[in-house]
Design a protein that fits this description.
This protein is an alpha+beta fold and 474 residues long. The chain has 20 helices and nine strands.
Length: 474
């Protein structure tokens, strides 16, 4: 079986990497080169709509409601010193802003030497660094891996601990979008002006993932008209395939803050904190209107979550809707006035959306088994997430493979579901790292050791039992 990655992983999810803005390199082994693909999403057929319909919604799952689209509301001119236009509802409508359950649960006894040897004898060399880090720093790792239906024999490390999600949280707007499409609220064939999407883009904060997504759409002939237009159905693809923050924020505000949070609630994400727009997060971290220090401002947010949610929303609306504000903010950032790495890490570990590995494993299993509110929404969600099936090497190993990753300073997150060839039940793997030393974080963005480890759990049938024998059930 392959012991190496089989497709390009672009860890460009949220590239707040001061002094490290290069595009992450591919893993050096077994990777399909990033050539232009003939199809937009996947070269391997997904289950047909008929087969998706054959898998009923489990009785224990709550169908996702579909409230009306939320629009910004007018506010008095005194609402903010830098913007007097319409404001969207602030994040934190239904969910808390700050996590409350971040204490690690690692209480397992030391592993037996024989168990460690069993892992050592099987694990690919490219995944060893991640495995050693898990052993040495279990408090800062969330790991859940199991075959659906055999959860009792899975691996669970800090499964219920709230951990920063980085771009894995983009699963929420993805589900909100496909549910809205499935009930006719959104028309995927509709168009979105490229200039509109660009109004959500803050240069320098995503390793140019937004630009790469637009360039690929242009190369495929999917940007057309004058002024240039993209199809609405391509915006979620930009968000999932390239992890465009601008695309995520466009969908987020198109559907509304309450819809994002209601989607998380309906999906059973009880440990989820409120997802705020990426624009709001980045500018709350640092912006041209601030007179004091960024680090002190973030500490203030931690003491005043209401103030944070208000300012994050106001800043995002100002940037999107006020061209003058946007121009000044972009020029300010282009002068490299980005926050320090220490400031980025404080913000990302405290105020980025949090969730638990266990609940995100359940979400990936739910999507993999067509468990959203109706067959069409399940089909669409899988169509976007299974873009890695474009590559022939993945087609040799899996019949279906769904994936989303994330990256913030000191944070690397990975979420998978997979059907190995010949299997009728999926495997899910969730692997979250927090508080990584900056040197290791940057190194793994190039070597992808963490992702190599997750992939090993998917590919090798003996991997999950071997890791379980070491980790036990903390």
């Amino acid at each position: 079986m392959p012991s190496r990655l089989l497709f390009i992983l672009l860890l460009v999810a949220v590239g707040l990497l001061a002094g490290c803005q290069q595009t992450p390199a591919a893993s050096s082994v077994g990777i399909v080169p990033p050539v232009a693909a003939p199809e937009l999403f996947t070269a391997v057929p997904l289950p047909t709509m008929a087969s998706a319909a054959a898998t009923p919604l489990p009785a224990t799952l709550t169908p996702i409601s579909s409230p009306t689209l939320v629009k910004p509301t007018a506010v008095p001119p005194t609402a903010t010193p830098y913007y007097t236009g319409p404001l969207s509802p602030a994040c934190g409508q239904l969910l808390p802003i700050l996590p409350t359950h971040t204490t690690p649960q690692t209480t397992a006894p030391p592993p037996l030497a024989s168990a460690l040897t069993a892992v050592q004898n099987r694990i690919p060399q490219t995944a060893v660094a991640a495995w050693q880090y898990i052993l040495n720093h279990p408090d800062d790792v969330g790991l859940v891996a199991y075959r659906v239906g055999d959860e009792a024999n899975g691996v669970y490390l800090n499964a219920d601990v709230q951990m920063p999600l980085a771009s894995v949280v983009k699963l929420i707007p993805l589900v909100a979008y496909v549910e809205a499409v499935s009930v006719g609220e959104l028309n995927p064939a509709g168009s979105v002006p490229v200039d509109t999407l660009d109004a959500y883009y803050l240069p320098g904060y995503d390793l140019r993932s937004h630009n790469r997504a637009l360039a690929e759409l242009t190369d495929k002939g999917l940007i057309s008209g004058e002024p240039p237009q993209a199809r609405l159905e391509d915006v979620p693809w930009m968000m999932i395939r390239h992890s465009s923050n601008a695309a995520a924020d466009y969908l987020h505000l198109l559907l509304g803050q309450e819809r994002m949070e209601q989607t998380a609630v309906s999906l059973g994400l009880s440990h989820q904190t409120a997802p705020c727009t990426w624009l709001g997060q980045f500018m709350a971290m640092s912006n041209h209107t601030r007179s004091g220090g960024d680090y002190a401002a973030i500490q203030g947010y931690l003491a005043d979550a209401v103030g944070y949610r208000r300012e994050a929303g106001q800043l995002a609306d100002a940037y999107i809707n006020d061209p003058t504000f946007r121009e000044v903010e972009r020029a300010w950032h282009q002068e490299m006035r980005r926050p320090s790495v220490e400031t980025q890490r404080l913000f990302s570990h405290a105020l980025n959306a949090h969730g638990s590995p266990g609940e995100y494993a359940a979400l990936m299993a739910r999507i993999a088994q067509n468990g959203l509110s109706n067959p069409e929404s399940s089909f669409l969600a899988r169509k976007y997430l299974e873009w890695p099936m474009l590559f022939a090497d993945n087609q040799e190993v899996f019949s279906n493979l769904g994936y989303k990753n994330g990256s913030l300073p000191g944070i690397l997150t990975t979420a998978y579901y997979a059907y190995p060839q010949g299997e009728v039940t999926p495997i899910v793997v969730i692997l979250f790292f927090r508080d990584l030393p900056q040197s290791i974080y940057r190194q793994w963005r190039d070597t992808l050791s963490h992702d190599e480890f997750a992939r090993w759990l998917l590919v090798d049938p003996a991997a999950i039992p071997a890791v379980k024998s070491v980790i036990g059930n903390p």
